[in-house]
Write a structure and sequence with these properties.
Helix content: over 70%
Bound molecules: fe (ii) ion
Order of helices and strands: HHHHHHHHHHHHHH
Low-confidence stretches: 263-278
Largest sheet: none
Shape: globular
Number of helices: 14
Amino acid sequence: MKFDIDTYLATVAPLDDADNDDDAFLERPLDDDTLRCLRYMHDVEHHTTCYLRDLLVTSAHEDPEVTSFLAMWAYEEFWHGEAIGRVLDRHDVTARRERIFATRRRVGRDRLRTLGFMAASSVTDHIVAIAMTWGAINEWTTQAGYLRLAETAGHPELARLLRRISRQEGRHIDFYAAQAEQRLADRGAQRTTRFALRHKWQPVGSNVMSAEETDHLVRHLFGGDDGEQMAARIDRRIHRLPGLDGLGLVDAVRRTTCPSASSVSPRARHLRCELVSV
Ligand SMILES: [Fe+2]
Ligand SMILES: [Fe+2]
């Protein structure tokens, strides 16, 4: 898998949503579950700048290809948050800077998290492999979530917007997955990354949003047969990365969150217990 950073840099742009008909939401508002998912997505997209902060205190800052991507990644994610914010505006839901301010206050200054990244970077040479793999998984789940919400919301204008966002998420996937594959060629990186994911991975945004909101998002987007198939597809992609076969991360979270999921396997329950205890 190859990723051409120069091609990406030449095509980086704010989300093209100038032709979106925001007034369509006044005529036909979104349902409460969809709006709740959009609030989550807005807050997490706008938290990207904080994820960037945490990555830049690690040895990732030594690689100019990685930092070139990360700068543009944060830029594109910002505009995803703004686009979703305009949809929330149309439903009289507080969005953008006022909402971001409240989110940051709720999360706190989060200095311990940043120190954790610094400490991890000083004790392992594989922090970038972990971060790139983590990024690939988060982008895979994010893109799948947008596409699923585009289907479940039953609103053509929202579907158009979410599909546009998901196309840009696809370019983020290409970068992170290519980096992960390359860095996981090292057996030590495989072992360390597998350990970190096994013990620390949680759905993207779960460090920012409450457990209730995270569970709602997982239930709404990963519930039912379609959600099960989506989770299985993402897990298959994770398992194809060197050294990560059989992790079952997404399925484990789905099984323990979605009431309609088939009975929880002992392994999934064990993994979920580890995830919620970190
Ligand atoms: Fe995004
Ligand atoms: Fe993304």
